[in-house]
Design brief:
Blueprint lengths: L4 E6 L10 H9 L2 E4 L15 E4 L11 H13 L3 E6 L9 H10 L4 E4 L4 H8 L13 E5 L3 H9 L7 E5 L5 H10 L7 E6 L7 E6 H4 L10 E5 L3 H16 L5
Parallel strand pairs: 1-4, 1-5, 2-3, 2-4, 6-7
Antiparallel strand pairs: 7-10, 8-9, 8-10
């Protein structure tokens, strides 16, 4: 990789073991790493020669302006440095990676995208919830729960039960989202889940129904994913099938 270059790198959902080989390679080569709030600090151990700059954003908390982040990336690349912008999940899934790539291109700074494992599908998978499953769901919809104007049009256009619904950054909006789905004709008994801190030691899953989703007793300050749809019940089936093996010590 040439000097004076920016890599927009996906760090995955949290567990450093879910970093891709290319992500690790770029960290090892980096002169400076700009990292997000949800990036596990253990991932930074892969960048032994780099300097680190925290540029994280969390809802409702003071944070660095996006334009400032873009300016910093451009400035350090123009100094001839190998820059890694380490972003939680995937850079192009609600990560403003597109904005940063466009800013770098406009400034004449070469960059690459290193895809990451998005929590949109990693969190459900780690909780035993498939996003698609024969006979239950043949499609899934991923929306941001940050604001009604982001999720309402998509949910209103979706026929009840037509797909598994995945909501990122939607813990604080779960009651409003549940209400919107119910108003759109979804059954109150539709399985639903809240997946907190996926892939981390403190990971926790709440499962219930769409009618109870808005009242789910969860930590709204933790990173989380909402899942609504019939495939949520697959996790319960997996637990029931795995229980006898666990009790007997598993296969020999």
């Amino acid at each position: 990789m040439t000097r004076g270059f920016v890599s927009l790198v996906g760090a995955g959902p949290g567990d450093p073991e879910l970093l891709t080989l290319r992500a690790v390679a770029r960290l090892r080569e980096a002169d400076i790493v700009f990292y997000d709030a949800l990036v596990d600090r253990a991932a930074l151990a892969h960048a032994p020669q780099a300097r680190f700059a925290f540029v994280g954003k969390r809802a409702g908390r003071p944070s660095i302006e996006q334009r400032t982040i873009e300016t910093l990336l451009i400035r350090h690349a123009r100094r001839g440095e190998r820059v890694v912008r380490l972003k939680s999940g995937d850079p192009f899934v609600f990560g403003r990676g597109g904005e940063e790539a466009l800013a770098l291109a406009a400034a004449g700074v070469p960059c690459e995208i290193v895809p990451g494992v998005s929590s949109a599908f990693a969190a459900p998978a780690l909780s035993g919830i498939p996003l698609t499953h024969r006979g239950l769901a043949s499609a899934f919809l991923v929306v941001s729960g940050h604001a009604p104007e982001a999720w309402r049009p998509a949910l209103q256009s979706l026929p009840p039960g037509a797909a598994t619904v995945v909501v990122l950054m939607g813990l604080g909006s779960r009651a409003a989202i549940a209400t919107a789905l119910l108003a759109g004709g979804w059954s109150a008994r539709t399985p639903a889940a809240v997946l907190l801190s996926a892939s981390r030691r403190e990971a926790h899953t709440w499962r219930g129904t769409l009618a109870k989703l808005g009242r789910a007793d969860v930590d709204s300050g933790a990173p989380g994913v909402l899942v609504v749809g019939a495939t949520v019940d697959v996790a319960a089936q997996l637990e029931r099938l795995a229980a006898p093996a666990a009790l007997s010590g598993g296969a020999r």
